[in-house]
Amino acid sequence: MKPHLDFEKKYWGKGKKHLCGIDEVGRGCWAGPLYVGAVVFDRAHDMIKGVNDSKKLTAKKREELYPQIIETAVAYGVGIVSSDEVDRYGLTYATKLAIDRAVEGLNIDIDILLTDSLGYEHVETVAIMKGDEVCYSISCASIIAKVERDRHISNIPEAKIYQFDKNKGYGTREHIELLKKHGVSKVHRKSYRPIRELSRD
Questions:
Q1: What would the pLDDT profile of 158-185 be if each residue is shown by its tens digit?
Q2: Domain locations in the chain?
Q3: Among 20, 80, 92, 97, fewest CB within 10 Å belongs to which?
Q4: Domain 6-153: which topology?
Q5: Which residue, among 129, 100, 133, 130, has the nearest Cα to 20 in the 3D structure?
Q6: Could you tell me whether strands 34-41 and 112-115 are parallel, antiparallel, or unpaired per DSSP bridges?
Q7: What global pTM score does this model have?
Q8: With b meaning 16 or more CB within 10 Å and e meaning fewer, what string describes 151-170?
């Protein structure tokens, strides 16, 4: 199934104006920040061809879609929590913090939040199972978050040492070998079990 606008049309039909899709990227990463994308379209928006869950798209395709999404959106925002904040607050609270920052970055009042994970306590939230696969706004939010996070982690000073341009901070075999060789950096999430164990070695 491909993303569609059925959820948006349902709430537009009920008189809701600003529907915000959100999605997060990087919860399972061993290094780098966690990103949440947020995007709002109006009811006159025409679906952009090729939009899908960011995980199902190539990096090239995501980069092609990204400017089309932000140029046609009423508003978009990105919420970021650092690896230090993930360690300090725990993953669940850190994700909520990133959602708050993404929604606040929209600079408009929203009526409904469309999500497939955690919500935003100040606004009515609609949880959609596999939302990034079926809900157009959530899919677009996932692309925004993925593109921005990949750009960031691929260009930080630690990227060359740990090949973040390839693994994006996930626990690949090559990443593990580089951790054993170079040790744990300041951008690694020390609260994650694999990183804790490597830190003790």
A1: 999 999 999 999 999 999 999 999 999 9
A2: 6-153, 159-200
A3: 92
A4: Nucleotidyltransferase; domain 5 (3.30.420)
A5: 100
A6: unpaired
A7: 0.95
A8: ebbbebebbeebbbeebbbe
